[in-house]
Each structure stands twice: as structure tokens, then as C-alpha cells.
Design brief:
By secondary structure, this protein is of the alpha+beta class. The protein contains 4 helices and 11 strands, in the order αααββαβββββββββ. A hairpin with a 7-residue loop joins β1 and β2.
Length: 209
Amino acid sequence: MALTRRQKQVLDFIAGFIEQNGYSPSYEEIARGLDLASLATVHKHIAALDNKHYLKRGINQSRSLDLAPKYFQEVRKHRQGGAALDVPLLGRIAAGAPVEAMAGSERLDFGDFLNRDNVYALEVRGSSMIEDHIVSGDLVLVESTPQARDGDIVVALVRGVETTLKRFYRESDSTALLKPANSEMEPIRIPLSDLQIQGRVLAVLRKYR
């Protein structure tokens, strides 16, 4: 089972504390070190790490946390390059008029932000999604899926040759609307037979240079 971002922070804190001090931290030290609201929150994360076999803990003991073999296996795998901490940058996606998306060989490292094999990144070009705060040069994280709900921001393949980033709406059993988030642009009305949903946007990343 994958770790949540906060669970990984707790695990990393414990590992670093043990390496520095030679003994495990108390629950109070974990709470202070990670600015957690309460000891109950610490207990919850420790229990989850125990259930996922990253930690071993004693019952009702303050400094009874030990790193489990699974933790060292994960560290070793990461050092050997086995941990997939990046996603492929597959090309550039139009956010104006549809254009062909070209595959690329670059990769983007997001560390523990993602833990799924079916997520990739695209760089936005154009201004059709600016009212959804997606601008040219942004990177969108996309879940590869052929399914979309009304209102989802999707990667849409139009007539088999062009891709675009728009909000998806099903108008009827045979027609869909690809709607830009730019009041100066017209939506694209298209038969469902000419449309293939290639992914659904999960997140937007903006880099400031």
C-alpha cells in the first residue's frame, strides 16, 4: 500500500532521528518536529505505518519504534534506481486551437507527490483555459483514462489527429461539448464518434523563472 505524503514525512522524520541520535523519537518529539496538532494525530500515522509494515512498535512505550525491513527495502530500491519518482513529459498540448501532440523523452520528477503508473505530464500552450487559471507554460498532471464526467478538464483527441485541453460536457447520446475557460473563445461541439478522451487533469504545476 502506498504512503500518503504526511505518512512519508513521519517515516522520514523517525528514520532521520534514529540515524542522528541512535534511538527512536518519542511521540511528543514527532509532534513537535512535524508541527502536528496532537498526539492523537501522531498515533494515527504510526498505526498506519505499522499496518503498512514500514514500522514496528511496542505497546504503551514512548521510544519503542523500530524501522521494519520493508523500509530498508524501499530505501535500497530507490538508491538502485528502482523507485519511480518521475513521470514522462509526453509533449505539448494545445489550449487554443487543437494541434497535434508530439511525444518527447523528457521526464519530470515529482518525488512522493504521485504513486500511480497511469499519470503523466503535459505542457500547456495557448490561452483557452486562462479563466480556470491554467496558462501557457503550465504543466498539467493527467490521469490516463477514457472516462470523463461533465465539467472535468480533459485531454481530448479530436477526429483522431488533434489534441486539446478543454472542459468536457455531454450534450446528448451522440454529441459532446469541449468548452474553453476563456469567454473570448467558442466551444467545440463534436460528435462523440469523433472524440476520444485520453485523460483527466489531476493538478496544475506552474514554474516561475
